Amino acid sequence: MKAWAHICKHNSCLLPTELIPFLDRTVVQDPEGIDIEYSNNWSSINQASGDSNARSLKPFPSREAPPTSVRATFKFSRLKSDDTIMFGIAADCRARLDPPIPTNYFGNCVFLHVAVLAGSAMQDDGIVFFAQKVSEVIKGIEKAALEGAKEKVKKVMAIEPAVIPVGVAGSARFEVYGVDFGWGRPKNVRAKVKVVALRLDWF
Known about the structure:
It comes from Populus alba x Populus x berolinensis. By secondary structure, this protein is an alpha+beta fold. It has four helices and three strands; from the N terminus they run H-H-E-E-H-H-E. It has one domain: 2-Layer Sandwich (Chloramphenicol Acetyltransferase), CATH 3.30.559. The radius of gyration is 20 Å and the shape is globular.
């Protein structure tokens, strides 16, 4: 977006070095074979659906959404004791890899980190318990962004239909208010996203 804004503002396709998209995929080291795990999971989805053309790119098959997933505000006190929630945070791993890769890397370096919470544990002081679990997930991201990634992929892909997925969309770190297309910085930014795109089973 910053590169696009720079081109519009200066009416030139010449970009400063820090805005030139970096496309070398080899900088992302994958000793755990996460790419193979993703490929295997997508293949198994196609096989389960009986699709004979596994190479075709299609939207991830949607599942029936639990009633609570369409609420604008979630009240954990309404959870049943036998309910289970999977809370997901999509993290930018570029600066968290060892060694880190350039911030202008133009590729998919986002990984989903999750916390699985039982409804029975959130009946009393649920918001405090929830905040502690989310804090643990965030600290884990900073410590080792891709540690145990292969097993995490398996767990996310094997989520049971009864588990309620909850996620976070948007981030203040996108820095959209610092982008200038030539008519000044934006005063207010709003993004319209279809609800179905926020469901964790699209990650």
